[in-house]
Amino acid sequence: MTIKEALTTKAENLSLSSAKIELALYEGNLDGATQYDPTTMGMALDLVYVTLLLESISISEVREDDVSIKYTNDSKGIVSAIYRKWGLVDPFAPAKPRVTQKQIW
User: Where are the domains of the chain?
Assistant: First the structure.
């Protein structure tokens, strides 16, 4: 299986053209024709997949008279899981406040 085939399989639920997948691989410095080895290229391929997921997050709303319907494609949970898998900083994690104690005498 090539890298391009692996990425196409991961992103099969996203409606992406072949050109968009090739561009994502090029921007991720991966050659789509190379044989895919998950031990050495797994993180790089996952990060390219995350990029495609983040580009596909969309919110659309349909309104007619008093009725409103929202369609969301929220892939933030998947992105967070991939970042945690590779030990990277999760961009969607809630910020943890830093508390310092000051003693006033």
Answer: 3-85
Element (H, E) at 8: helix 3-10
Residue partners of 88: CB distance under 8 A and separation at least 6: none
Region 22-47: what's the mean pLDDT? 92
Q: Do the beta carbons of residue 72 and residue 59 sit within 8 Å? A: yes
pTM score, two decimals? Answer: 0.68
Name residues whose C-beta falls within 8 Å of residue 46's C-beta, 6 or more positions apart in sequence: 82, 85, 86
80, 46 Cβ separation under 8 angstroms: no
CA distances from 71 to 36, 46, 62 (A): 35, 26, 8
